[in-house]
Amino acid sequence: METVLTDSFTVLILLVSSSSTPDRFIVPGGGLEPDEDAETAAIREVMEEAGVRGSLVRCLGVFENAERRHRTQVFVLQVEELLEEWDDSKSIGRQRKWFTVPNALEELMVSKPVQCNYVQLLANKTAGPTSLSPTGVEDGNAAVSMNNPNASSSHGLHLTGSNNQASPAPAAEQTTT
């Protein structure tokens, strides 16, 4: 298991290697399964893609893309366990890596710029009230962030799930990643 040493005030973001470009790191994620709510999808996706077990603490925000009729909910996750092996690490060799907020923003600007909104929202919420208006975000994304991953009550951020049920799209647009 990886060891991450930080002080209790350092916020870290856990990104995973992209399945299409393994040398780039992105926010882990995916869509909702049939009859699955966003909370359940958030817990499932972070487990499958990042090998993280935890429980949701609160919803941090909702990102909507009116053009694509997608909604992504952002959750704070209390991290309880980091697995040495997980589904995507075994099946596609997916890696996970901890980033500071500035480094996560730098990485995401190259690999998937729309996901910078998630990290900015987390940074703003961590620093105090936010004026960030989440827009233009794709469906089905997940991330983990922790103040101190070695502490017994660390918290994280998990973002997930398209919820096309709230604003139905034509069948061709209802696929999720």
Q: What does this molecule look like?
A:
GO terms for molecular function: bis(5'-adenosyl)-hexaphosphatase activity; bis(5'-adenosyl)-pentaphosphatase activity; diphosphoinositol-polyphosphate diphosphatase activity; endopolyphosphatase activity; metal ion binding. One of its GO terms (cellular component) is nucleus. Residues 144-177 have a biased composition (Polar residues). One of its GO terms (biological process) is adenosine 5'-(hexahydrogen pentaphosphate) catabolic process. Belongs to the Nudix hydrolase family. DIPP subfamily. It is a single chain. The chain is of the alpha+beta class and 177 residues long. The protein has one domain: Nucleoside Triphosphate Pyrophosphohydrolase (Alpha-Beta Complex). The chain has four helices and seven strands, in the order E-E-H-E-E-H-E-H-H-E-E. The protein has helices spanning 38-50, 87-91, 101-111, 116-127, and strands at residues 12-17, 25-26, 52-65, 70-82, 96-100, 144-146, 155-162. The strands form two sheets. Strands 1, 2, 5 and 6 form a four-stranded antiparallel sheet that branches. Strand 1 and strand 2 form a beta hairpin. Helix 3 runs antiparallel to helix 4. It starts with 11 loop residues before the first strand and ends in a 15-residue tail after the last strand. Residues 1-6 and 128-177 have low confidence and may be disordered.
